[in-house]
Amino acid sequence: MHELFSEERSADVVAASFAGTPDPRLRQVVTSLVRHLHAFVKDVELTEEEWAAAIDFLTRTGHTSDAVRQEFVLLSDVLGVSMLVETINHRSGGTGTESTVLGPFHQVESPERQLGDDIALDGKGAPCLVSGRVTGPDGEPLAGATVDVWQANADGFYDVQQPDVQPPGNLRGLFTADDDGRFWFRSVVPRWYPIPDDGPVGQLLAATGRHPNRPAHLHVIAAAPGYRPVTTHVFVADSPYLDSDAVFGVKESLVRDVPEVDDAERAAALGLPNPFRTLTVDVTLLRA
Ligand SMILES: [Fe+2]
């Protein structure tokens, strides 16, 4: 006969119920989950009211999620779990561009664009030339690398958050690097923004005295055949909240100055007003 449930032995008893799981990885994950969950409940001696509140919180988190809003990703983000999973799975050893969280706003495919295109379809914000080069670990240019970018607009919202305000695909683009691994496009300087805080995750932040803000950043996914893709951001050096990102995404190596350039000829050639800002995004990919 199997051992019956007791407070002292609860984790062992429940873990044993999963001992027959055929997939060894699933068995490992579910067993560890049970052990940590039971240790947590015992640590705080969870009350029945708190248990009910937790069930209600998770239920509302699910109900708040849809095709363009992912409240569970947000929850994972503010608990630092997204960043931890990302970090564990992309230990680069300091030789490739560091990764950071995907975030909840890459829910739509970025529209394919040509080098030099302007992705700021709403025309708001400080004009900015974004340019860079995708290379391998020895500096070899990765011709034809794809560079997928997305960012918030000058008001701090992504297009999917404001379908009635922003044109679809605003501040998103999928670019293909040239033969020298270079890419460039026109945009605006990204702005810091609050993560959506009108749902359960926002209530959690408010109840714990945390602000919901993320420092200004541009999201980037760079990929090339034969190399490991990287999902990352570049952060604007003079942005507020660099040291208190609500989702813990900042890494020092990803912070960039966005200097102003005053060069009427270059501005005209690029189709930008003068002066304009410049953001350089060089990316190093590791071999697969
Ligand atoms: Fe973002």
UniProtKB/TrEMBL annotation:
Its cofactor is Fe(3+). Gene3D superfamilies: Aromatic compound dioxygenase. Keywords: Dioxygenase, Iron, Metal-binding, Oxidoreductase. It holds the Pfam family Dioxygenase_C. It comes from the Bacteria. The keyword Chaperone does not apply. Residues 130-158 form the Intradiol ring-cleavage dioxygenases domain. GO terms for molecular function: dioxygenase activity. PROSITE patterns: INTRADIOL_DIOXYGENAS. The keyword Metal-binding applies. Belongs to the intradiol ring-cleavage dioxygenase family. This is Intradiol ring-cleavage dioxygenase. It comes from Geodermatophilus arenarius.
